[in-house]
Amino acid sequence: MNAIASRIADFLKEHLPFSNLSFDELTQIATNIRVINLEKNQTLFQINDKLHDSFYVVASGVVNLSVVSDAEETLLNKCVEGEIFGLRPFFAKNNYMMTAKAREESIIYAIPIATFKPFVAQNTEVLNFLLESFASTNYSSNDSKGNLISDTAIFSNSKSETQYFQSLTYNKSPLTTTITSVVKETAQLMTESNSDFVIVTDKNYPIGIVTDSDMRSKIATARFPMTSTIDKIMSSPVIAVTENVSLAEAQLLLLQYSVSHLCVTVDGTDKSEVKGIITEHDLIVAQASNPGVLIKEIKRSQEPKDLRKVRLKLAELIQTSLDKNIPLSHVMNVAGEINTAILKRAVEIAIIELGSAPARFAWFSIGSQGRKEQLLLTDQDSFLIFEDVAEAKYRDVKDYFIKLSKKTVSILEKVGYAPCPYGHNASNMIWCKSLTDWIKQFNTWMNTPGENSDKISGIFFDYELVIGESKIEEAISNLVIKNTEKNSLFFDYLGNDTLRKPAPLSFFKKFNLEDEGIYKDKFDIKNRAIMPLVDAARLFTLSNHIKGINNTYLRFKQLAISNPANSEVFLACAEAFLVLNKIRTAEGLKNDNDGQYITIENLSKADKEKLKNALNPMKELEDLIKDSFQLTQFS
Q1: Across the strands, what pairs with 278?
Q2: Fewer beta carbons within 10 angstroms: which end of the chain, N or C?
Q3: Angstrom distance (rounded) from CA 368 to CA 308
Q4: 620-623: long-range contacts, CB 8 A cutoff, minimum separation 24
Q5: Strand 197-202 and strand 176-178: pairing?
């Protein structure tokens, strides 16, 4: 055995998805691998390069994946030992969408796609891993045009990788014939049935398929006479799948086997009865329900009921994604884009009713919407900033924006977003004011915390511009960053506020349940588990002067890159955040509520264990807060 190939196989065996393959299979793969040595800052591929014939595994060192946004290089992810990247050639024909550059001297294994594809087809675990990597490479960002980019896919108004995980509808009454049929009779049957294919069966088990293409290439060219039996021209064996195959899996199988039809059977093999057929046309039809289409529906909406229909479709999309085990970070990205589009359209409908705005303004969503973490129909939080105007016009301008805000909040309430119970809405006059007044507000919050009755609400630092002037957002963002410099008092306040959240577990590692009220004996997964992570991510992001990242998961991922010494804690918190939100979302969808209160005993043993494990990073995070900030003034 080749000693180098053996060492490479030993390495691959320790990492997913290769750990799902046998050592002999890995050795076959390893003999075809190219070893690439990259110097520090050397580029393996860059944006717009033609796709390579391989994907890559980091054997040692670190490779940064980045895009160029607004003329600046933005780091999206760093790949360390054992991680795969560069999967785009598996799933797309267009050029690379990002740059892969060595952060330090690195050794890379280049695995030829042609060599690896057969093992993908033979192993479901490997296929699923690649599909999940295709959907999300652990970190996503926006390019200068607002497109959501990952290592392998791009989200735009016309297409999203989520479409590849939607369930398929298919022909459940396909045309069938037997192996003894004659070609001429079969051709007549296909014509009469207006079908471009027929499945050849034996005791209703699929043994082959004949398509229009077979008729043209084998009969019309006289290679076989019309009196031949159908088995002479059929393609065999058929490629069989189960009925819950995803669009992604179906597309991959069509690509791998160069076929145009997939046979749906009872158990997904050709040794069970036929249930239907999936065609390339079915895949095209399935794409009509992708997020890009939902956004187009939003733009065409004229009434709240139109937006509500889209929001219900989004709920279905989220449920399907959970059922398919799509990475939650990716689901949040797509849901965030659709939620934001709904909010924007609500403001636009309100403006159409009221007339043009008398001044430039910016509408911001805050809280879970501002962080693009809102998967369930929870409440709406917002604020509005309008440009400074002459004193004589101020009252009339503010009156307009109050009316606009009330109308928008009312529209969103009809869509299903209840107003914030704490009044954190632009319809509240204290959260609808001029830029100068908002500058005073943030200065007060950040420079003199605790000295007034207007307590800081951390969600106002999780804002997302929905519609309006980007310069207004930029002014607030620059102010916030400026006020974080040498501002230990502000972080003292936020740090103590973060640590005041109720503990999720008791001293004896039991879940702390509500002890009174209508939620007695239930676990508050929002306030005891999720919000401490949200608050901590905000605290460290602001203290590290990180701008433009609001999502809690992405904040922790960026903190892990910015603070290598504490990367393990931050990465553990990032994963914990996803686990907790997945549990909450699943509970909320099942019970048609916001999923905040969980009945622990109703969880499966596995989910209880996942929930408890997700709470493990809390203590380390708490200790890190105490070590990083002077928590004296407000403790």
Answers
A1: 262
A2: N
A3: 19
A4: 620/569, 620/572, 621/532, 621/533, 621/536, 621/569, 621/573, 622/499
A5: parallel
Which residues make beta-bridge pairs with 110? 34, 56
Which residues fall within 8 angstroms of residue 471, CB to CB, at 6 or more apart?
Answer: none
* pLDDT tens, residue by residue, 14-61: 998 898 898 889 999 999 999 999 999 999 999 889 999 999 999 999
- Three-point CA angle 108, 112, 118, nearest 5°: 130
Task: Calculate ∠ Cα 46-47-49, nearest 5°.
Answer: 70
What residue ranges of the chain have pLDDT lower than 70?
Answer: 1, 68-74, 76, 91-94, 121, 124, 128, 131-168, 248, 255, 284-290, 451-455, 635
User: What is the dihedral angle through the alpha carbons of 310, 315, 321, 327, rounded to the nearest 10 degrees?
Assistant: 100
Q: Tell me which H or E stretch contains 346.
A: helix 328-354
Chain mean position to CA 156? 13
Strands (E), 459-516: 464-468
Three-state SS for 137-197 is CCCCEECCCCCEECCCCEECCCCCHHHHHCECCCECCCCEEECCCEHHHHHHHHHHCCCCE
pLDDT value at residue 247? 73
Place of tokens 């086997």: 257
Q: Beta strands 523-524 and 597-598: pairing type?
A: antiparallel
**Rounded distance, CA 374 to CA 380, Å?**
10
Number of residues in the chain: 635
Beta strands in 379-425 (DSSP E): 382-386
- What are the CB-based long-range contacts (under 8 Å, 24+) for 598-606? 598/522, 598/523, 598/524, 598/525, 599/521, 599/522, 599/523, 600/511, 600/513, 600/522, 600/523
Contact 151, 99 (CB under 8 A): no
Are 388 and 469 in contact, with CB atoms under 8 Å apart?
no
Q: Phi and psi (nearest 5°) for 466?
A: -95, -45
Per the DSSP assignment, residues forming a β-bridge with 199 are 176, 209
Nearest to 462 by CA among 533, 557, 556, 364: 364
> SS3 breakdown of the chain: % helix, strand, coil, rounded to 5?
50, 15, 35
3-class DSSP state of 310: helix
Element (H, E) at 281: helix 280-286
Q: Order of strands across the sheet with 154-155? A: 141-142, 148-149, 154-155
pTM: 0.63
Name residues whose C-beta falls within 8 Å of residue 10's C-beta, 6 or more positions apart in sequence. none
- List the strands of the sheet with 197-202, edge to edge: 176-178, 197-202, 205-211
Between the alpha carbon of residue 189 and those of residues 113, 203, 207, 241, the distances in Å are 41, 19, 18, 25
Backbone angles phi, psi at 97, to 5 degrees: -100, 0
**DSSP strand pairing (240-241 vs 261-265):** parallel
Residue 285 pLDDT: 64
Residues in contact with 225: Cβ distance below 8 Å, sequence separation at least 6, in sequence order: 183
410 — phi, psi (to 5°)? Answer: -65, -40
Identity of the amino acid at 168: L
Give the position of tokens 């293409």: 213
- Closest by alpha carbon to 75, among 137, 156, 145? 137
SS3 (DSSP) at 390: coil
- Tokens 């299979």 locate to 25
Say how many C-beta atoms besides its own lie within 10 A of residue 560's C-beta: 20
